[in-house]
Amino acid sequence: MLVELDVPKCVASGQCVMAAPDVFDQREDDGVAILLEEHPGDELLDEVREAVAICPAAAIRLAEQ
Amino acid sequence: MVVGASAAGLAAAETLRREGYDGTLTLVGDEPHPPYDRPPLSKQILSGEWSTQQLPLRPYTDLDALDLDLRLGAAATGLDVPDRTVRLADGSRMPYDGLILATGVRPRRLPGKGAHVLRTLDDALALRDRLMPGSRLVVVGAGFLGAEAAAVAWKLGCEVTLLEPAPVPLAHAVGTEVGRVLSQAHLDRGVELRCGVTVTEVTEEGARLADGEVVEADEILLAIGSLPNTEWLADSGLAVGDGVVCDQYCEAADGVYAAGDVARWDNPLFGVPMRIEHRTNAAEQGMAAARNLLAAPEARKPFAPVPYFWSDQYNMKIQAYGYLRGHDEVAVVEGDLAERRFVAAYGTGERLTGALSVGMSPKAIRAWRQAIAGGTPWEEAVPAGTPATEAA
């Protein structure tokens, strides 16, 4: 699986961190998302899909499954 | 079938596919554009910082992968629930087995011609083309949308005047004291803010007030709230009253669900019916409605979110969790109001129901979401001795 994060689009809502805490974190100062794991394991597929769906800035994309 | 091709409708369609539905999936939208994101309209699109290429919610390849019967520029005009059909503006009748309504809202307007509104991409581009350095913009309504647009126009060098009917902008939503602090951001930059004035009409010269005065303007933006798009459901037999009335599962009638700005549902977490016009709710509710539509009756889940919104104004990022409307108490629990760096907690009845932050680390605010979701008692969430501020 390949995850892409469009950092300039991020609005710092933190929704991705709540959906997939092993894949995303937030910067301390401005809350912008951090992609912890570009190639997460398949066991995290559902969580990543949830993060993609729930991101209010459409900033996350599942490029490959 | 999903009616409404914006954030809620797209989230519903994607979820139907993710959850294994592989039959015909029709997505109907009245705008000609493929699904796009609305929050940037009053921010990066209005400022010109982004091109319209950055606005689609999904690249074409991802939309294609959903294998949709995508009907854009096709307004739905009627619904027959017993017959399970939706009528479209071109006269066609579309049968469905399950239906999700996500037709959103449209801006309120005032009598008179020539004023802008800000809801669609076309609205945003029309306004952007008129914002020149030195041009006089009057924004009617100093809520979140009006404040964001005013901030962008100020940055572009416009002379901006905000006209607000309430004595303090946003007081009904965030409380009087917090509303006052937020509106100070306009005054600090020389944006004129006139409160307690009602605009009755748009004229060629400007905005006419109830007392007859005309506030002169080159352009006028109306940001005075929205109306749910439910007229097309008038003969459907569905309960409609400031939105499509749904139960806690977002179901409006057998096999008919609603999501996003148009849906009024019972949120069991707060025990009140609510209709939420927030971007995050559109996605969450679209997903929830789609899951419940596919689920066996006993497997459905109540939709019980902690609402969340953000607003970007000047250099301020405002974030809020929970349901702030109708709050009884407000207390500043971190930071300092006057510095516009703070977290305010909101209480309704005996419990914590909301939190709003300005200029604080967004990461730190998430703890408040948990406290709200857990129904934390007010006394526990807000330490004794914390000074209260003026509520709504």
Automatic annotation (TrEMBL), chain A:
InterPro entries given in the database record: 3Fe4S_ferredoxin (IPR001080), Fe-S_cluster_ET (IPR051269)
Official protein name in the record: Ferredoxin
PANTHER family: FERREDOXIN (PTHR36923:SF3)
Domain of life: Bacteria
UniProt entry tagged with the keyword Iron-sulfur: yes
Keyword ATP-binding set for record: no
Primary role: Ferredoxins are iron-sulfur proteins that transfer electrons in a wide variety of metabolic reactions.
Key words of the record: 3Fe-4S, Electron transport, Iron, Iron-sulfur, Metal-binding, Transport
Originating organism: Streptomyces spinosisporus
Gene3D superfamilies: 3.30.70.20
Essential cofactor(s): [3Fe-4S] cluster
Stored Pfam families: Fer4_13 (PF13370)
